[in-house]
Write a structure and sequence with these properties.
2 helices, mainly alpha, about 70 residues
């Protein structure tokens, strides 16, 4: 039986991105994560929204994050 080859695909998200998302998730849990420009929106309760905010912050910091898909 031949040995399985590891896929040569590179990581889609960088380590800095995952740290920023983790930080956003912690802020969501503690109730301090807010949405909107300048955090003037309401408190974020959704897990998906917290991840989106974390990725957006990572992008602004210059972390390795894929571009946002056009709506």
């Amino acid at each position: 039986m031949p040995a399985r080859k590891k896929s040569a695909r590179t990581r889609r998200y960088g380590e800095g991105a995952s740290k920023t998302v983790a930080s956003a998730m912690r802020r969501r849990k503690s109730g301090t994560l807010r949405s909107g420009k300048g955090a003037k929106g309401g408190r974020v309760k959704s897990r998906k929204q917290a991840i989106a905010i974390g990725l957006s912050e990572a992008r602004k910091k210059g972390a390795k994050v894929p571009r946002k898909k056009a709506a």
